[in-house]
Recover the amino acids of this structure.
């Protein structure tokens, strides 16, 4: 069962293609724990969790105006920092 809807943290009139760093969270469908487990305060990725980490790490190979910084895969979501470069040439962040 999906959790309650929350208000979007996005700024209404902000251009998310603007050069800069963005903190991004991507959640699994219905926030299901699918990517592994936390064992003794350490995330242990399962097969799907490794796929998520690999796909995240590969983003900048497909979108040249994007550079990736630190990220962490959690049981039901991923947190990461994305740098968009080349103002006006970067795809909007939701892309």
């Amino acid at each position: 069962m999906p959790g309650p809807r929350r208000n979007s943290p996005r700024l209404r009139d902000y251009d998310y293609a603007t050069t800069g760093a963005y903190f991004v969270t991507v959640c699994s469908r219905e926030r299901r724990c699918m990517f592994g487990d936390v064992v003794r305060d350490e995330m242990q990725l399962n097969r799907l969790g490794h796929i998520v980490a690999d796909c995240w790490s590969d983003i900048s190979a497909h979108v040249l105006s994007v550079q990736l910084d630190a990220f962490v895969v959690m049981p039901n979501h991923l947190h990461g920092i994305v740098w968009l470069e080349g103002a006006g040439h970067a795809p909007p962040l939701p892309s």
About this structure: The mean pLDDT is 86. Residues 17 and 91 are 6 Å apart (CA to CA). The longest strand covers residues 20-27.
